[in-house]
Every structure is written in C-alpha cells, then in structure tokens.
Amino acid sequence: MEQYSSKVMEHFAQPHNVGEIENADGVGTVGNPVCGDVMRLYIKVENNVITDAKFKTFGCGAAIATSSMVTDLVKGKTLDEALKISNAAVAEALGGLPKVKMHCSVLAEEALKSALDDYYKKQGKPSPVTISPDAGHEHEME
Amino acid sequence: MRRVYLDHAATTPVHPKVLEAMLPYFTVKFGNPSNLHDIGREAKNAVEEARAKMGTLIGARADEVFFTASGAESNNFAIKGLAQANSQKGKHIIVSQIEHFSILHPVKTLEKAGFTVTYLPTDKQGLVSPDDVARAITKETVLVSIMHANNEIGTIEPIEEIGRITKEKGVLFHTDAVATTGWIPVDVKAMGVDALSFSGHQFYGPKGAAGLFVRKGVRIKPQIEGGIQEDGRRSGTENVPAIVGLGKAAEIAAAEITNRVAYLTPLRDRLQKGLVEKIDHLVINGHPAKRLPNNLNISLWFVEGESMLLFLNMQGISVSSGSACTSRSLKSSHVLTCIGTDAAVANGTLLLSLGMGNTAEDIDYVIETLPPIVQRLREMSPLYEDMIKKEKAK
After folding, report:
1. pLDDT in tens, B291-337
2. CATH number for the domain that contains residue B100
3. Which residues of A touch B385 (CB under 8 A)?
4. How many domains does chain B have?
5. How close, in Å, is residue B97 to chain A by CA atoms?
6. Residues A21, A52: contact at Cβ < 8 Å?
7. In the prediction, which pLDDT does A33 show?
8. Do A60 and B302 touch (CB under 8 A)?
C-alpha cells in the first residue's frame, strides 16, 4: 500500500475535534462496519454559521484523519460554504491520500452533508443537501 | 523505545548462523552448479548438502526435494504441475476455502482450463472435516490440496487422517506447509502426502529459497522449462547462497523443533491470557488447541485493525491486521469469512505471530501497550458509543 502523508499521520495520531456535542443542531452517521468505516459528525449552528463540529469514527488511519480534517475545515463556515466542501478538498488539505483510501474522504464529505441535512430537517426547512444513495447505509445492517 | 516484532507469519529474520553459512557463496564459492570445473562442483555440492538437510527436516529423501524461489511458486508448481501431469485420470480438484491465494488462484486458472474444483468449508475453528474430503472424492478426482496449518488463524488441519483417505482412494495429496515447516514437526511419511510446500524465510532462512517435496514416482509437470536444474523439474540457475541458507535453517530447525514448541506455546498463552484479561469484547480466532504455537489471531469489537496496527507501530510493536482497510481489495480476510466471523468484527482483527527472539518482557510490553490503544480508539468509535447506550437502556 502507498504510505500516508505526514499530515495524515499527524491528524491520525492526534485527531482534532473528537467527541460528541450534547444537543447538537445536526448529526450525521454514514458508512458501514462491514466496509470498515463508520463516521458520525455533530455540528452546532448559530446564525447560519457552524460554530462547532465534533466527530466519532470507527475506521482506518485515513478515516480518522479525514474526520479530523473535515471538522477543522467546517468550523466557522456558513452553511452555504459548508455545503461546498468536497472530498477532494479534504484529501488535498491532508497532503493527499493513497488511491485505495480516497473513499475515506468521500465518507467525510457524506458525513458532513448528512449532518447538514439533519440540521435543515430539525429546523423544519427544506434541505438543499443531496445525499448519495450510499450514505448512511449502515442502517441496513441493524 | 522497546521494539517488539510480532509478525513472524509475514517473515522471520535470517538466523546469524544461516547468514554465516551463506556468505562464502556470494564471493568465493560463487560457482554455477551446472559447471564441471571445481568452482562449479563446489557450488553443486553445497546445493546437494542443503537438499539433504531439507529432506531430513521433513522426513524426505534428498532426491524428493526440489528448490524454488518462494512459497507461492512452490504452491503454483504443486497445483498446476500435479494436475496437468496427471489429468488423464480426471479433472477434478479438491481444496479448502481457507487456502492461501497461491493455491486458490492457480486452482481458478485450472478451472478456466476445464478442471472442476470443490472448495470445502471448515468449521468455526477452521478445521476441514476428513469426512468432507472423503465424500468429495469422485472417480474424476486427481488432486486434493489442504494446508497443514492456516497462516492467519493458525489452525492445524487433520493432515494424517486426510492422507489415509487419499491413499486409500488413490488420489494425489498436496499440503501447503509454509506456515508449519520449522515451527512444528513435519513428516511427509506420517502425513501421507505426495507433495508438500515450504519456504525458507518463514523459519529463519533467507528470502528467495523455498521448495516442494514431491514423492518419488509422482509425476509433476515443470512450470519453468529450458534447463536441466532440479532434475529438469525446475529450470534456472540455482540461487546457491539462498539455498545454502535454507539448508542451514533446516538443520537448525531440526535440532531445535521441540524447544521451539516448548518455548513459544507458554509465551503465546501468556500474551493471550494477558490481553483477554484486559480487553473486553475480544474474540480469539482459530482452534483453541490445534493451533500453531506462535499464533494469536484476535478480533476486537468496535475498533478497526489498521488504526490499532498504526498506533502499535508508533510504540515499536509490529503486527499484522486482517482488516479490509489494509488489503488492496478492501475485503476482509477470506479465512475469517469462511470460519463465520461476524463481518463487523472481522475488520478489527490483529494477527500476532511470535518468534524465538521474543521474550516474556516483550510480551508484557504488548499486554501493557495494546489495551490503552483499544480504549482510546473505542472512545473515538460511534459503534462503541451505540453499544454503551444500548447497555444503559437495558
């Protein structure tokens, strides 16, 4: 396997924003333990700005590093800006990912979108989020 | 920082006496064994001496031992060579589902070429049933190949029983003994096998020297042609230094084998006991008793294997992971799937394989180091959080 970048190892060894947010405004869980990754992302929103983000992840080095990075990237962003964060941006911020691990960055993007979708639904607002059919498929397991 | 190597199933270091035996064959005794002059004869004699030592370790005659470059080559040679040379008898092959890919892939190739293959399941501890083998044999069966012990979960298969069945039914029997040779006694006569694969770097020999035992009188089709080496069975100039090293490793193993089992079994049991005591939601894979003395394969709920492996590596401990994430295919181990390991926990698998260089202090260091890593990752895991909440709700 290709090696991880030093940035990935940094975020894996000392991940930022690990934990839960009590009474979070949005929570998204995506992935599947059978595939090896499950990400849960919590966001706090005030005046259309994401003021806090935390995560819990079951997964490999890349899954933990992308979770750490996406929560870093999203903090302080407006909801519209957060919606535009792509998996490529997460991977790039980490100095790249091995090819076989790119799906971890996709999962990070989906976890964020799923949390945003949850936020809009809780607010009773129409959700502008398009979630891929794969997101959240862990629920099929239960 | 203490460094603890617990990945002997991947490869072993070369024994210092093995290296010492090899060195002259690079520079001074560098001859080609096919040459008739003194320098060539010297190399030829060294290869033949190694062949005799290898034969002694596995209870075979020297002229039944054929050197190859790797365990994978030996397995390819056995499967394709035996099936192709004896296909006039029939085109049916029997293997287990937990064989190494260097058995399963050649078998797939033969399947595409018109052979039919029966893939036998195992029980939950990884044992193949001899009765299943007997039932699967038909008039068309040309070859049965069941591994001596599984390289991942360490389960030791009932080879002698299967050997009696194949002998009675007149079917060729190959066993992949790459995981066992040099670690537990291997005797081709007692096992009743017609062919057996082994590999030097798995038991303190160098990489690049391995081999296949083929019982005298058994026909096998060469897979590498064009020369006279290895009695025409395997062409190519011999890797003399590596073969000399393999011979020396076999000689050391033959002398030490009882000690190896006696040293490794309690050390492995200490590791198993220590981890079981300190970590909950832990599954031990493989057979509790019929298992390689240096093998511990565990699956841990709510954590993923690669992240454990990386944290252990930061603490100087080298292990393997059976998780989907460390494999190129992103699929979890076919062995764990076969023994019925829950797919959700299969991704939290670690393979710890001990060696003669490991001490009780090394083992205690691992017992100290792994539990906090698991705890830290579990606190980060949404699956663990869900489990705790479910427990509380009860």
Report:
1. 999 999 999 999 999 999 999 999 999 999 876 565 555 577 899 99
2. 3.40.640.10
3. 20, 40, 56
4. 2
5. 20
6. yes
7. 85
8. no
Kindly state whether residues B276 and B389 are assigned to the same domain: yes
Pair (B48, B149) in one structural domain: yes
- State which of B253, B277, B309 marks the end of a domain: B253
Domain residues for the domain of B36 are 16-253
What percent of chain B has a predicted confidence (pLDDT) above 90? 96
CA distance A19 to chain B (A): 7
The minimal CB distance from A38 to the residues B326, B330, B383 is found for: B383
Q: In this structure, are B249 and B285 located in the same domain? A: no
Q: Is ipTM over 0.85?
A: yes
Q: Return the pLDDT at A142.
A: 29
Q: Is the pLDDT of residue B147 over 60?
A: yes
Where residue B269 sits, what CATH number does that domain have?
3.90.1150.10
B174, β-bridge pairs? B145, B195
Asked if residues B212 and B77 have their Cβ atoms less than 8 Å apart, the reply is yes
What is the SS3 assignment for B382?
helix
Domains present along chain A, CATH in parentheses: 6-121 (3.90.1010.10)
pLDDT value at A133 more than 60? no
- Judged against a pLDDT cut of 50, whether residue A137 lies above it is answered with no
Instruction: Specify whether B96 is located in the same domain as B72.
Output: yes
- What's the rounded mean pLDDT across residues A112-123? 96
Q: Provide the percentage of residues in chain A whose pLDDT is more than 90.
A: 82
Work out the mean pLDDT of chain B and round it to a whole number: 96
The mean pLDDT value for B130-142 works out to 98
Exposure letters B81-91 (e unless 16+ CB within 10 A, then b): bbbbebbeebb
A59 and A24 Cβ atoms separated by less than 8 Å: no
B150-160 pLDDT, tens digit each? 999 999 999 99
Query: How far is A26 from chain B, CA to nearest CA, in Å?
Result: 15
| SS3 per residue for B181-242 | ECCECCCHHHHCCCEEEEEHHHHCCCCCCEEEEECCCCCCCCCCCCCCCHHHCCCCCCCHHH
Q: Are residues B343 and B240 in the same domain?
A: no
Q: Given CB atoms, is B306 within the 8 Å cutoff of chain A?
A: yes
Asked if B285 contacts B155 with a C-beta cutoff of 8 angstroms, the reply is no
Q: What is the maximal distance between C-alpha atoms in chain A?
A: 45
pLDDT in tens, B345-383: 999 999 999 999 999 999 999 999 999 999 999 999 999
